[in-house]
Write a structure and sequence with these properties.
Blueprint lengths: L33 E9 L4 H4 L4 E6 L12 H4 L5 E3 L1 H13 L5 E4 L5 H13 L6 E5 L5 H7 L3 E6 L6 H8 L4 H15 L3 E2 L5 E10 L5 H14 L5 E5 L20 H13 L5 E3 L23 E6 L8
Parallel strand pairs: 2-4, 4-5, 5-6, 6-8, 8-9, 9-10
Antiparallel strand pairs: 1-2, 1-3, 1-11, 7-8
Length: about 325
């Protein structure tokens, strides 16, 4: 990596090579200035991540993938967020700890990776003791995974698809299957699964897969890959929450949520492939739970407790 990792920027597999330090934006939509939408205690993550006090989740602005139906599109695609210095970010990490978070959960932070690590180390020097969760699309370079390895307790990557055509449609990245599988295997190497005395995971990799309507064969392909390459080395989280964003036009079958029959088919594939170690969402159709990051409380009070919002100005603490 060059002395300035943002110029040229090669932090993600798109390798835009733009000079973000000079104010240029990459595919992610961001310059090198850190931006984030909010920080909150999140109670809706997988149990090892949520813990009793909630996961201290920071939603970074911009995204290296920018999926067409992203539930966080206000942040990932539309640029909602406030500028933060590295010291601001370190203070947010420390404030999350004071509010009872069991970890710091960095959501889609790849394009700010060097500054996040710097802020993390600064916060550790000032008393931060909770672990780091790296919550990403899976679209990472192996070099990025190696940079993160010494700092991360849980990698929480998506594995969206192994179909290059589907990856090209959703996020203009036909190389996503290759990049994501290489990165996820590197994550499993860097952070082997560990369990506490109660048997619950304390470190490791949790691979998320969102089932898409009408694409059960793509889900089966992902599950078969996981079973063959990561069974016993990582956990799987199968997700049912695909929901078209209101007002967005998508072609069938992506203009609807999952049916009960589709979800049951995905669950049957899990059983057939012998994948038992992990998590499964309930099928709950509807848009009521979709976040609105422009509000002071993007998620419901049952799912979260706000710690800092972009509308608050400079973080304190």
């Amino acid at each position: 990596m060059s002395p300035d990792p943002y110029a040229p920027c090669l932090l993600c597999p798109r390798a835009c090579a733009v000079h973000r330090s000079g104010g240029e934006t990459g595919f992610c939509g961001e310059t090198r200035i850190i931006r984030a939408a909010c920080a909150l205690l999140h109670f809706g993550e997988e149990p090892p991540v949520t813990g009793p006090g909630g996961s201290g989740t920071v939603f970074f602005t911009g995204c290296t993938l920018r999926c067409r139906a992203c539930q966080n599109s206000q942040v990932s695609r539309n640029g909602f967020g406030a500028e933060l210095s590295r010291d601001d970010l370190a203070r947010i990490f420390l404030r999350l700890q004071r509010e009872g978070a069991g970890n710091v959960n960095a959501v889609t932070g790849t394009h700010f990776l060097p500054d996040i690590i710097d802020a993390w180390q600064a916060a550790r020097a000032r008393g931060l003791a909770i672990p780091l969760v790296w919550n990403s699309s899976g679209y990472e370079t192996v070099d990025a995974v190696r940079m993160l390895g010494p700092h991360v307790a849980f990698f929480l990557p998506d594995l969206k698809t192994l179909d290059p055509a589907l990856a090209a449609f959703w996020f203009n990245a036909p190389e996503y299957p290759r990049a994501a599988t290489e990165a996820i295997l590197a994550m499993a190497e860097a952070r082997p699964l560990e369990r506490g005395p109660d048997g619950l995971p304390t470190r490791g990799v949790i691979v998320r897969h969102l089932v898409l309507p009408g694409k059960l064969e793509a889900t089966r392909e992902v599950l078969a890959w996981f079973s063959g390459r990561l069974a016993g080395r990582a956990l799987l989280s199968l997700m049912s929450q695909y929901t078209p964003i209101p007002g967005q036009t998508l072609p069938p079958p992506f203009d609807r949520g999952l049916t009960r029959g589709e979800w049951d088919t995905a669950l049957a594939a899990l059983e057939e492939l012998g994948i038992e170690d992990g998590f499964v969402q309930d099928l709950e159709p509807g848009t009521e739970w979709l976040p609105d990051f422009t509000r002071g409380r993007p998620f419901s009070s049952e799912l979260s407790r706000m710690v800092w919002h972009a509308g608050d100005g400079e973080p304190t603490g």
